[in-house]
């Protein structure tokens, strides 16, 4: 399999994963997006804010790779998550969905624009490479899509609750 085919497959998986995520919240009211997924936990909207924050992080990482740098992951992911979600607190669901769409479009455009020679695996697992980033971000969407789908299917959500 050559790099271009691998890149195309990874970008398709990234698109498919985002489609799964959006399908998981299809038909969910704005009021339901504000309800916790579990007692004392994040709301569905907070999960979407979290995903958008990571897309923005990934876009910055892609830009760093394109400049010849080697981006690394946050030292403490829990602290990073908390700060990223806090920055986005108070946004409307519509603003969250718009930011989610824009952040993924920007990330995907950056990945698509990267020359083939930058689509190689970095042997150091602590460093971010483009194939790994695309794979991990697709998995991230898939995991949260499953979480949101289970929440939607097992909770009473919809117009009758809000």
Low-confidence parts lasting 5 or more residues at pLDDT below 50? Answer: none
Instruction: Kindly provide the radius of gyration, computed on alpha-carbon positions and rounded to a whole number of angstroms.
Output: 17 Å
CATH architecture name: Up-down Bundle
Instruction: State the end-to-end distance.
Output: 50 Å
Q: Total strand count, please?
A: 0
**What structural category arises from helix and sheet content?**
mainly alpha
Report the β-strand fraction as a percent range. Answer: under 5%
Helix content: 55-70%
Order of helices and strands: HHHHHH
| Total DSSP helices | 6
The average pLDDT score comes to 88
Query: What do we call the CATH topology?
Result: Four Helix Bundle (Hemerythrin (Met), subunit A)
Shape: globular
Describe this structure in words.
- This protein is mostly helical.
- The protein has one domain (3-161): Four Helix Bundle (Hemerythrin (Met), subunit A) (Up-down Bundle).
- Helix content is 66%, strand content 0%.
- It is built from 6 helices and no strands.
- Helix 1 (3-24) runs antiparallel to helix 5 and helix 3 (44-66) runs antiparallel to helix 6 (130-154).
- The termini are far apart.
What's this model, at a glance?
The chain has 162 residues and is mostly helical. 66% of the residues lie in helices and 0% in strands.
Indicate the topology.
Layout: H1 3-24, H2 30-33, H3 44-66, H4 77-88, H5 93-113, H6 130-154
Task: List its salient traits.
mainly alpha, 6 helices, Four Helix Bundle (Hemerythrin (Met), subunit A)
């Amino acid at each position: 399999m050559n790099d271009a085919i691998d890149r195309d497959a990874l970008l398709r998986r990234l698109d498919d994963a985002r489609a799964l995520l959006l399908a998981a919240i299809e038909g969910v009211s704005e009021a339901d997006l504000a309800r916790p997924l579990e007692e004392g936990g994040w709301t569905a909207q907070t999960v979407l804010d979290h995903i958008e924050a990571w897309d923005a992080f990934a876009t910055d990482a892609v830009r760093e790779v394109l400049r010849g740098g080697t981006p690394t992951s946050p030292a403490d992911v829990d602290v990073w998550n908390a700060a990223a979600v806090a920055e986005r607190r108070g946004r409307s669901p519509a603003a969250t969905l718009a930011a989610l769409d824009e952040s993924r479009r920007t990330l995907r455009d950056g990945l698509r624009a990267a020359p083939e020679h930058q689509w190689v695996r970095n042997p150091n697992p602590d460093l971010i490479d483009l194939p790994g980033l695309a794979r991990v971000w697709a998995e991230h969407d898939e995991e949260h899509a499953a979480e949101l789908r289970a929440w939607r299917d097992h909770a009473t959500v919809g117009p009758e609750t809000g």
